[in-house]
Every structure is written in C-alpha cells, then in structure tokens.
Design a protein that fits this description.
Number of strands: 11
Radius of gyration: 18 Å
Shape: globular
Helix content: 25-40%
CATH topology: Spore Coat Polysaccharide Biosynthesis Protein SpsA, Chain A
Length: 239
C-alpha cells in the first residue's frame, strides 16, 4: 500500500499584510510550510508533492526542502488559478498511490495522531477529513445581514485538513470537476474543499475525524502568534 501527500503552498496571504506569502513566513525560527512537511516526513507517508505558486519552485526546493532535509518530497509543481486547480495538479503529479492526503501548507500544527486517525478511517470509508466540532452557536444569514436560522450546534463541524481519500476516487472526482468547470461557474457553484468534490461527483461522504488539538490555518498576523504559543505549549507537554 502506498500513501502520498499533497501539500498546498500556493497562497499569497493577502490578509497577512505582507509581501511574503504566509507559508514562507517565519514561525518559531522556521518557515510555516516546514512544519507540515516535517509532520509528513516523520510519518508513514511515502511521498510528498508540494504545490506552490508558479515561479516559486526553486525557492521551495532550495530554501525549505533541501535546507531542512525533507527527503520525502519527490515533486514540486506549480499550482493553478483556484485551489481546486492546484489540487488537480497535485493529483496528476501524485499518480500511482492507493491513498492521498490533501493538506494546506498554512496549517503547521498537524501531528501524528490526526494523520494516523485519518488513515484508519479512510481505509474503512474511502474518504476522511480532520475536523473540529463547533464551540460557538452558529447563525445562518438571510443575505441582508440578519439572522435567518440557527442550526443545531451539535451537528456543526469546522472543516480542516488533511482531507484524505482513495486516490482513484478523488482523482476521478476532480477530473469530472475540471471537465464541468465552465458549467459549474456559470451556475454560481463555489468549490471550497475536497470533500465537496467527492460528494458532488462520486456521491461519497467523508468520515469526520475529530481533531482534539488546535489545527489553525495561518491567515492573519495574530495566527502566527497563536501558533507559536501552541507549539511551545505542545513541546513542553511532550517533554
């Protein structure tokens, strides 16, 4: 059995207020992207494919992969206009595996526990996703800034990554998405994560895998501070 990982590192991080893409910003002395790569490096994952911004391939190879000794990275490919284009490019580059992890490189706090739990469930259900139960009450807006409805909080989950699939299942779904992209865009359909694609085109629901630790995505400058605090906290707990 072969298990690969696609790490998405093509974001530009406009909300960070910096010219440096967020995945390359320093976090506890190393680039944000390093930490998810290191997690896969230390895991059962066989090969890692990095999908970065077009033109960043040499930088990623020299300043992150080689500099920090990440040996499992076998390919570094350019992403596309939208996230789903980048995922598709990664899937093409990741051919020949049984399962594939799709992970946002701006989520540096993944650990071996959630990787192993996702693998356990993907082997049973073909699709699995790291997630967290909602802690706050959720409101649905009516489109004009007023509350329309209140869903049952106990049934609301916040999607994270990695999102993990049988390779052929997710590859087939993405091929159908790309083939029907124009029709979907015309209909106003917005593709925001990989479980949507698999559900839409293969009618497979992903198994939710509760993540007991924070798995925040670096989006704002404050997130860097929070991630640094959590990393130091988790390091102390593991001593």
């Amino acid at each position: 059995m072969k298990v690969n990982a696609i790490v998405l590192a093509g974001g530009r991080g406009k909300r960070m207020g910096s010219n440096i893409p967020k995945q390359y910003m320093e976090l506890c002395g190393k680039p944000v992207l390093y930490y998810s790569l290191k997690a896969f490096e230390d895991s059962f994952i066989d090969d890692v494919i990095i999908v970065c911004g077009a033109g960043d391939e040499d930088y990623v190879r020299k300043e992150i992969v080689i500099k920090y000794g990440i040996t499992k990275v076998t390919k570094i490919v350019a992403g596309g206009k939208e996230r789903y284009h980048s995922v598709y490019n990664g899937l093409i580059a990741s051919g020949g595996c049984d399962y594939v992890y799709i992970h946002d490189g701006a989520r540096p706090l993944i650990d071996q526990y959630i990787l192993e739990r996702c693998q356990h469930y993907v082997e049973k259900f073909r699709a699995a996703v790291a997630a967290a139960k909602a802690k706050d009450t959720i409101k649905i807006e009516n489109g004009d800034g007023f509350i329309k409805s209140t869903p049952d909080r106990s049934l609301v989950w916040l999607m994270q990554t990695p999102q993990v699939f049988e390779y052929r299942l997710v590859k087939d779904a993405y091929e159908k998405l790309i083939d029907q992209e124009s029709r979907l865009l015309s209909a106003g359909v917005s593709i925001t994560d990989d479980t949507m694609v698999v559900k839409m085109f293969e009618e497979i629901d992903a198994r939710l895998v509760e993540n007991p630790k924070s798995n925040l995505k670096i989006t704002t400058p404050e997130d860097l501070e929070i991630a640094a605090f959590l990393m130091e906290k988790y390091a102390r707990e593991n001593i």
